[in-house]
Amino acid sequence: MNGPSGAVLTKTVHLPNSHTIDVYRRHGGYEALAIALQKTPDDIIDMVKRSGLRGRGGAGFPAGTKWGFVPKSTDKPKYLCVNADESEPGAFKDRLICAKDPHQLLEGTLIGAFAIGAHRCYIYIRGEFAAEARILDAAIEEARRAGLVGKNILNSGFDCEITVYRGAGAYICGEETGLIESIEGKRGLPRLKPPFPAVVGLFGCPTVVNNVETIACVPHIVKHGWEWFAGIGTERNTGPKLYGLSGHVVKPGVYEAPMGIPLRKLIDEFGGGVPGGRPIKAVIPGGASCPVLRGDEIDVPMDFDSMTRAGSLFGTGTPVVMDDTCCMVKAAWITARFFAHESCGQCTPCREGAGWLQRILWKIETGQGEERDIDTLLSVTDQIEGNTICALGDAAAWPARGFAKKFRDEFIQHIREKRCPLGGGSLH
Description:
With 428 residues, this protein is an alpha/beta fold.
């Protein structure tokens, strides 16, 4: 939970009672909301566009552009949904905001609602985050008593209610239309797009769905100006970023740094390197759905564009580090098992394909594999990718393909020796 000097998103998380409105306001909290309410909604959308803020939930879509898709002239209510369904293996940065600085999230939510013309917001939180849900509920009540939630906020004439909605443990509800379906009381099955949520979303009305960290950036853009935000990071990848670092590192945790920090620097300087000085064998750069990088491929900036050029994905910006004791076949199997379990079953390529990936990888890991199984595995990933309603199928295919291609020799060694040469490695 440590950040460098000059931290923005994490500047108060280390303070006692950082989750309370008193601490938040003592450090400038809700000043941005007051500024925003003196501007027009178009002004706010323009600021967010100019800042270059890209969604921090994995897709990296420009937040201001998404807000701009919401129709201005409609007789339907509009909604803002905050995605706190943080279920990606390796991702835990949004949880920090919910637990330690909920008012930062509420302030950003209120500004976002004002910008798009919404008067009702939902924070959809992972069901397992029971403590964080209670903290958010308490923060909403604090804000309500202070005249910051509800009717006539800060005497501006703007009304807005915020409701915390707890999920039931389904990873698929992190997909924006699955999330919408869940709030509507239905099974969390992703929708076909188009129509997109900005036009036909929650209850058939215009809706924006933004990630927690994305929304938490908004007050700082309003308060300090879009030029300030755009001046942090790299071109097309701007602003401060929360990085969740885990796996084989001395100091796992959430660290704040500018977008574009070198991955190796994040591991060595923030995470303290690998325990015992062991070599880095592999890194999953942005959560379990991202293709793996070999240890000799990690001299790359942590941003959306650089990771794409490196053959992987930035995702949520939450690297999982694996040293030379880790079995790549087992790592691939663990990720495949997760996605097979979490598939909603709506699409045949995902439902059946993810299951086949899991079974093939387990066969190889347990010494029952044949060399042709590697090509079968790759063929299955090709049949999944791009053939599903949502990106969960791609999320299952990409890591399996990455492990099999980057570490093919290790896969072959498993098959020829009819066992795991590393004893299953140390990744559990």
